[in-house]
Amino acid sequence: MPHDDLTPLIEAHVRDIPDHPRPGVVFKDITPLLAAPEAFSAVVEGLTAGHGPGTVDAVVGLEARGFILGAPVALRLGAGFVPIRKAGKLPARTLGESYDLEYGSATVEMHADAIAPGSRVLIVDDVLATGGTGRAAVRLVQRAGGTVVGFSVLMELAFLSGRDKLSDVKLHALTTV
Ligand SMILES: O=P(O)(O)OC[C@H]1O[C@H](OP(=O)(O)OP(=O)(O)O)[C@H](O)[C@@H]1O
Ligand SMILES: Nc1ncnc2[nH]cnc12
């Protein structure tokens, strides 16, 4: 399926913040993109990855920046939105997965009843780095009985090889650095 190349637009609206949140990490700050409605809208459309309205049952967004991008994608697809949150934040019964990050480790959780068995699920996040968060999200959806029909990210940091952890899913990165 053809997509516009959003690389120039993303390069113009995502800024590098050296040494955040710790020395040696170049943080990709998407806040300028969120503040530019035309760019934000184009990115939301890109993150649908060619899925049309009614073809996806749920969009899963990963806390926190995956919420901002995933929720409008869900509305565009006429799908429900399901948050995956850092441990301890969701109020009802949860499923949890632990993983390593570029700059630390974390546990994420999803409500155990958030995905109906057999659901077609699109996962959305801003950055794919080591792939730890993404792998955890795929596991949570699969443990709930959902089928991951795609994994969309705004930006893939290829040097961290996160793609290798997601070789069994259809990964769609709007740009790769
Ligand atoms: O591929 P990985 O190495 O797992 O890293 C990618 C994840 O790291 C960032 O989230 P972070 O945990 O920093 O949370 P935030 O969005 O709340 O800042 C980013 O938004 C992805 O979710
Ligand atoms: N370098 C980075 N910038 C923004 N988000 C990230 N998540 C993991 N690594 C990141």
TrEMBL record:
GO molecular function: adenine binding; adenine phosphoribosyltransferase activity; AMP binding
GO CC terms: cytoplasm
Enzyme class (EC, first level): transferase
EC numbers on record: 2.4.2.7
This protein's pathway: Purine metabolism; AMP biosynthesis via salvage pathway; AMP from adenine: step 1/1
Annotated localization: Cytoplasm
Coarse class of the protein's main subcellular location: cytoplasm
Domain Phosphoribosyltransferase residues, every copy: 53-156
Coiled coil ranges: none
Keywords: Cytoplasm, Glycosyltransferase, Purine salvage, Transferase
InterPro entries: Ade_phspho_trans, PRTase-like, PRTase_dom, UPRTase/APRTase
Function: Catalyzes a salvage reaction resulting in the formation of AMP, that is energically less costly than de novo synthesis.
Family recorded in the similarity comment: Belongs to the purine/pyrimidine phosphoribosyltransferase family.
Protein name listed in UniProt: Adenine phosphoribosyltransferase
